[in-house]
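Subject: Protein record for review, amino acid sequence with backbone structure tokens
Concerning: The relation between a protein's sequence and the shape of its backbone.
How to read it: Take the token row as a discrete description of the fold.
Enclosed: The protein record, placed directly beneath this head.
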Amino acid sequence: MSADILQDVARYYSSRIREHGATPQGVDWNGSASQELRFAQLLSLVPAPEQQQGFSLIDVGCGYGALLSWLQERGVACDYHGYDLSEQMIEAARQQHPECDSVHFEVARQSSRQADYAVASGIFNVRQDASRAAWEGYIAEVLRSMDACSRKGFAFNCLTSYSDPPFMRDYLYYGDPCFYFDLCKRTYSREVALLHDYGLYEFTLLVRKAS
């Protein structure tokens, strides 16, 4: 991965958490309602509790651990591992969620372990000054990492190229959902679902691996 892109991403999100604290705005979301809606789409990757006996999860770009809070509020028990490029984010996550046998956080470029599933929420949106080609190379590398660290599947979201032009911003990245569906279908699994019907200017891709 490009060192410049990684440094820019870490710097950007560190500035957000310093300014806004452990809030949706601290990870560049408008509010908790849309943040939780995104979590619901991503976690539809995981079978319903009655169909599985617990699971392990890697939260890529975990921020301050909002996804873990969302899971705990719903009584979903899992072996959770979150990592982020920003030291400030991980500090905030550990303050929110003291580490224990089933909760771990680390500052890292990629996961140090494997899990059943890996998810990433919002980490591909803020391109800043990176070229589109460089940013798409970065996304491709992260997806390869997510595939490598997940045994049963992975999921991610991205702003959509079908967004209304007057509301699109130069520093953000808008991905083509058809391109990423095709990439995941051809590269990672035959079982890929594209979710583009939940009322936000984005899409979610679920990649399920064969048992």
